[in-house]
Structure formats: structure tokens, C-alpha cells
Amino acid sequence: MKGDDTISGLLATGRQAGIHKFLVNSVATSPAQVYRINDFIAQAVSENSEFIGFAALHQDMPDVEREVDRVEKLGLRGVKLHPDIQRFQVDDRRLDKLYASLEGRLPLLVHTGDYRYDFSGPARIAAVLDRFPKLDVICAHFGGYTEWDIAAHYLAGRRLWVDTSSSLAFLSPERARCLIDAFGSDRVLFGTDYPMWDAPEELARLDKLNLPEEVREKILYKNICALLDMTINMI
């Protein structure tokens, strides 16, 4: 881990990189954790104007629709799932109620890919998108951590977003630019996966791609602002 896993540490590394806003989220490994996690994130957002909060949900929650209503009232702007940690296949039909409750309401940020497991592969994400075409999905790690070619095959050209987190350190600048072109510069979001990675280092890796400034600005903030229908006052 590059960071110390604290709010103060996150803000400090962000200042070094010139970051004004942070999308913060967590993962629930049991249904009982969901409510405490979401209350904590909502409190952190209320105490830190730099934060945009995404809620946690769990695949075995009995009252997922009610919790989605609640997190909207708390002011959280989306939901995070991590199938590999939560131990479910992302296209499992028992998630249909959860996805239906989000479709057209809140975006879903989902960990995607890892050749070691069979929980969140790009083909499974594609199956979810086939069933829920209006679900706004952010597929982390360029759509498939360690499975970038497979991600491009199954997900490029679809109505979704990808982020750069936990990817740029492993991809050549040429390969990263190819992925941006494949998914479309309007669909790529800058991410750091803090505390795993250091924000200034991740920003330096993005700059090594030598992207046109218009594309760079889209990835850094314009695309997420469009997705979440918000504005950022650049100081």
C-alpha cells in the first residue's frame, strides 16, 4: 500500500497531485456492514467538501431497494461492488433486484477482472449490461484488471465507463492509449485506487501517455462531471 488508509492521508496525497475532488467508497463483506459503512461515508462527505460518496451494498441484503432509497437521501451519488472480495459472480441472477434498483438512478462502480478468479470477468459484465441496458456502470481497471485484451473484446463500444486505476503501472503508454481509443475518450475516468497507489505517481503515469489536452481534461474530470451531472470549480 502506498497510502496510510486515512482521510488525512488521502487529502495530503491529493494536494500533492492538485486533486480537488475524491470519489470515496468502501466494500461490505456482510449485509450487516452495509448500513454502518454508508453512514460513515455520508458523514465523511458531510465533513469534507472534497468528497463525493458512493455507497456499499451486499448481494445478500434482504432490503436492497430500501437501502438504495436511503443512500439517495444521504446524498451518496452511486454504489460500489467488489465481486472478488464479496465472493459472488457479477452476472448471478440473485443480483437482478439490486441492479434493477440502481438502473436509471445511481451509477454502479464495480471491480472488474482478474485472471486468478471467475467473479467479475468482462464477459460476465457484458451479460449484466445485456440484461440492464440503462444501468450506468463504471468498470474499474480499464474494464478488466490483468485481462485488458479480454475487456476490450467484450466491453469496448458498449455504453459504460472505465477507470484507469490499478492499470497504468502495468500497461505501456501505447497499450493504454489503445484502450482509451477502444472505449472512447468520453468514457474513461482517472482513478488511483487509494491507498494502493500514490496519486502523484498515477498522474505522472497518465501524463506519460502524451494525450491531447482535451482528452486529458475529459479523463481527469470532465467525464465524471458529465456522468454525475455536477460541476467542479477549478481554483
Q: Helix and strand layout, with pairings?
A:
Elements: H1 7-17, E1 22-24, H2 31-47, E2 51-56, H3 64-73, E3 78-81, H4 83-86, H5 96-102, E4 108-110, H6 122-131, E5 137-139, H7 148-155, E6 161-163, H8 173-183, E7 188-189, H9 199-207, H10 213-228
Parallel strand pairs: 1-2, 2-3, 3-4, 4-5, 5-6, 6-7
Structure in words:
This protein has 235 residues and is of the alpha/beta class. The chain has a single domain, classed as Alpha-Beta Barrel (TIM Barrel), CATH 3.20.20.140. It contains ten helices and seven strands. It has helices at 7-17, 31-47, 64-73, 83-86, 96-102, 122-131, 148-155, 173-183, 199-207, 213-228; strands spanning 22-24, 51-56, 78-81, 108-110, 137-139, 161-163, 188-189. The chain has a seven-stranded parallel sheet. Strand 1 (22-24), helix 2 (31-47) and strand 2 (51-56) form a beta-alpha-beta unit. It is globular and about 45 Å long. The chain starts with 6 loop residues before the first helix and ends in a 7-residue tail after the last helix. 40% of the residues are buried. The model has no long low-confidence stretch (mean pLDDT 97).
Low-confidence stretches: none
Order of helices and strands: HEHEHEHHEHEHEHEHH
Please name the CATH architecture.
Answer: Alpha-Beta Barrel
Give the overall form: globular
Structural class: alpha/beta
How much helix, percentage-wise, in residues? 40-55%
Number of helices: 10
Averaged pLDDT, please? 97
